Amino acid sequence: MNALTVTEPVLDAVQTGALVQARNVRKSYGHVEVLKGITLSVKQGEVMCLLGPSGSGKSTFLRCINHLESIDGGRIIVDEELVGYAQRHGRIYEMNAREVSRQRSGIGMVFQRFNLFPHMTALENIMAAPVGVKKVERNAAKTRALELLDRVGLSHVAQHYPAQLSGGQQQRVAIARALAMEPQLLLFDEPTSALDPELVGDVLEVMRQLAADGMTMIVVTHEIGFARSVADTVVFMDGGVVVEAGPPAEVLDDPQNPRTVAFLNSVM
Amino acid sequence: MSSAAPTAPTSRRAAAVASAPDDDVVAIPLRHPWRWVVATVLGLSLVWLIYSMWTNPNISHQTVTKYLFNPRIVNGVLLSILITVIAMLVSTVLGVFLAIMRLAHNPVMNFFAWLYVWVFRGTPLLIQIVFWGYLGLLYQQITLGVPFTDFTVFSVDTNTLVPAFTAGLLALTLNQAAYSAEIIRGGMLSVDPGQTEAAASLGMSPAYTLFKVILPQATRVIIPPMGNETISMLKQTSLLSVIAVLEVYTVATQISSQNLRQVELLLVVSCWYLFLTSVLSVPQYYLERHFGRGNGAAQAPTPLGRLAALLRRAGVLKARPAVVRPTEGGQP
């Protein structure tokens, strides 16, 4: 918050052509510093997988990108805008709730535990935000929602409530719900960790398809196979810092850092 | 297993054993003799109690039946219902706002909501009722204008603006709001924080999240205790007798002070309260059903639905034409 300096203009992102740019991002819970200066950037259309042991700060970092968590230092820029802060007349102001909501509506998020709205059907879950936030006309929103359900292969469960769906189906509805806001960036927070092994494949297939369609994605995951075949960049985090980053062929197949080696050995 | 079947099986059990595959357990059901003993003792006690009341020469049963549908009593019942309905509706709205204030980040709103609950929950309802009834003693005139100046829009006599009925309604509503606020706050806290995060990540505003995501889910938890509160409220309307609101208990005491049939009129009033509290559980059932949607598997048919199905099977009602459901998820 107060660690943000006023003088520096927020132009680096434009110059580098990155959709997401994080610079020296720091975050503490009480005395525990969980992010100790994360710097990385994601280009338009890029798929980045964040790997690392639990407690390494991957999920926290992901949640900072759409301001579900506020940062204590550094800065995050998405689409040439500071996340959570507005720049006016060379000063930086904390955003109000409405501005934060507007910013978040362009960044979709998929959660480990799906977080579908249990009192709404699959269809209503997908329609809720377009109708309530973007003020899309109901019928148009419904048509679009049905298209999205078809895209994730779930047209037949449109009228089902989340409790009547399997975990894999719920997660695919959650992806469709995030897509309904037409985000330019999708964040995935361990999207397959709460699923039974046989249901993981369907969800990964949908994500694979999204990546092929050019969606910019940041994925916190333990699925090394997915990272290897889909990611453009793999980032290995440990203890709140980026230990190693690069194309999957380098990080996964020829890791340089002993911590990366140890982690990959333990999960593969 | 089946080899342990009794040596002299009854014919049915023998048949069961014969038809069962070898590894099926065919057991003699556990007997519960004490259930029968307890049921008999309790049943006899109840019969004795009813008999002693029925044959008691000090209770005039004609008086009870005579006054059960007496117009004054019925009007009193209607007034009790009216007060209950208005007080519950208004206090629920107030309670929602108080709960929101309690959970808000604004410390001033927080404190105000806490103070409200502290005062109204911390003093006896009876005293609050008398207080509102005596409002006219405290402020003879109620004036709308700018404080500390002579400018006034209007000014009325307190006892005109706040007759006993309004005072009673006010007392019950404001008191109930404090309790409802705590129930509603509990319901809101029971909703998974992941729901708020999901709503936030979709760009929903805090207010939209509250009304479309949090409250509908909280309602499922809120309804059973609120049903309780409604039943309490109905019974608490009898406290308004202290400020002479003409609800059913006040009317009954007025009648019994003339004919000196106190017990009979108490029985009349009790019958009405019992009847009304029984009726109140019906809307609660349907509300719970409505807000429980999406929670668990398909819902069982309602009692009315079951009755209709039974009548259809018996041929009393015409069979319902087969419902053509659009294929779920099909294009519109």
From TrEMBL, chain A:
GO terms for molecular function: ATP binding. It holds the Pfam family ABC_tran. Signal peptide: none annotated. It is a peripheral membrane protein. InterPro entries: AAA+_ATPase, ABC_ATPase_HisP-typ, ABC_transporter-like_ATP-bd, ABC_transporter-like_CS, MetN_ABC_transporter-like, P-loop_NTPase. It is found in: Cell membrane. Keywords: ATP-binding, Cell membrane, Membrane, Nucleotide-binding, Transport. The keyword Mitochondrion does not apply. It comes from the Bacteria. Residues 20-264 form the ABC transporter domain. Transmembrane segments: none annotated. PANTHER family: AMINO ACID IMPORT ATP-BINDING PROTEIN (PTHR43166), L-CYSTINE IMPORT ATP-BINDING PROTEIN TCYN (PTHR43166:SF35). This is Amino acid ABC transporter ATP-binding protein.
TrEMBL record, chain B:
Gene3D superfamilies: MetI-like. It is found in: Cell membrane. The keyword Coiled coil does not apply. It is a multi-pass membrane protein. Keywords: Amino-acid transport, Cell membrane, Membrane, Transmembrane, Transmembrane helix, Transport. Residues 77-284 form the ABC transmembrane type-1 domain. The chain crosses the membrane at residues 36-54, 74-101, 113-140, 265-286. Its main location: membrane. Belongs to the binding-protein-dependent transport system permease family. This is Amino acid ABC transporter permease. It comes from Arthrobacter horti.
